[in-house]
Amino acid sequence: MRAVTAPEPGGPEALVVTDHPDPEAGPGEVVIDVVASSVNRADTLQRKGFYNPPKGASDVLGLECSGRISAVGAGVDGWAVGDEVCALLGSGGYAEKVAVPAGQVMPVPSGVDLKAAAALPEVACTVWSNVFMVAGLQPEETLLVHGGAGGIGNFAIQLGKALGSRVLTTAGSAEKVALCESLGADRAINYRDEDFVEVVKDSGGADVILDNMGAKYLSRNVEALAVQGRLVVIGMQGGSKAELDLSALLRKRGAVIATSLRARPTGEKSAICAEVVEYVWPLVSEGKVRSLVHEEVPLEEVGRAHALMESGSHSGKILLTVGG
User: If we measure between CA atoms, which residue out of 213, 224, 227 comes closest to residue 258?
Assistant: First the structure.
């Protein structure tokens, strides 16, 4: 099968498409013939040598995919050869085939194209697990989403609104601000022109903040929290080390939580996928929540897809098309 790896750390040119042995379905696993995968920022970090796959996982990049089941391992119930699915992966999505624990496989929501379904697993599982399972966002609370025009950001805006919360978001251009507002954001803040902290404080503060910046925004995020607010850090685009004034956090009676989805054990990922199917997929099927696709890029042009991701000019997900 064709698959993408980065034998040596580097820029987008470090990615190579080569032949690999076809995976086999072990106990509790299925093999998926991949139709599409999706580019995530974690993939660009792995390419640079900063974010290795979990122990024992494939060095093939890719954290999600969609396709058709071609093999079912021992002990797997509920899935059959030919089923159209999407899946949350530890690695391996940039390939023609991937083996995945059955609990991390999800049906394609009704009304969603099989190829487009590749844009759903990572964003749906990330947003649901962090904003709702971990931070416990409630209806009528205020959610602040950083990077609202990105794949995770635009999904968080829609899901927060669909479940009854007030949603504020940051974005870096007038076009991205308009996109966020079209997705339901109550207020989209152009961080190049406005201080998001002042805007959020004027609105009463954020009960939950979903942050992909890390160190750069740490103190400002704490300042923007409402009393008993919860800051969930899921990325470090703005660095990994910063000072935190604990007295500011104590005054808010707030919480700072840092999480990672990829490193969680299979059982935890399976539980998240089960909740996503139960609570999120119906909203997707009803058209209330969708994952935006910026562009489809053939697998052989994976370097261009990574360059696009790192340019920051995209809005929504970048799909890698693999099979038919």
Answer: 213
The span from the CA of 90 to the CA of 206, in Å, is 32
Give the separation between CA 130 and CA 301, rounded to whole angstroms: 32
Count other Cβ atoms within 10 Å, centred on residue 246: 10
pLDDT in tens, 177-215: 999 999 999 999 999 999 999 999 999 999 999 999 988
Residue 2 clears pLDDT 90, i.e. is over it: yes
The overall average pLDDT reported for the chain is 96
Separation CA 162–CA 157 (nearest Å)? 9
Residue matched to tokens 């999706």: 38
Residue with tokens 């099979």: 323
Cα-based distances in Å from 241 to 41, 101, 218: 19, 35, 9
Q: In the chain, where does the domain assigned CATH 3.90.180.10 lie?
A: 2-119+291-321
Listed in sequence order, the residues at least 6 apart from 123 whose beta carbon sits closer than 8 Å to its beta carbon are 151, 152, 155, 291, 317
- d(C-alpha 257, C-alpha 239), whole Å: 16
CA distance 293 to 146: 19
What is residue 96's DSSP assignment? S
The domain 124-258 is placed in CATH, from the list 1.10.3720.10, 3.90.480.10, 3.40.50.720, 3.30.450.30, at 3.40.50.720
DSSP for 184-237, written as a single string: T-SEEEETTTS-HHHHHHHTT-EEEEEES-GGGGHHHHHHHEEEEEEEEE---T
Question: In this structure, which CATH number among 3.40.1190.20, 2.30.330.10, 3.90.550.10, 3.90.180.10 belongs to the domain 2-119+291-321?
Answer: 3.90.180.10
Q: Where in the chain is the domain with CATH 3.40.50.720?
A: 124-258
Bridging pattern class, strands 64-72 and 84-88: antiparallel
Strands 142-145 and 187-190: unpaired
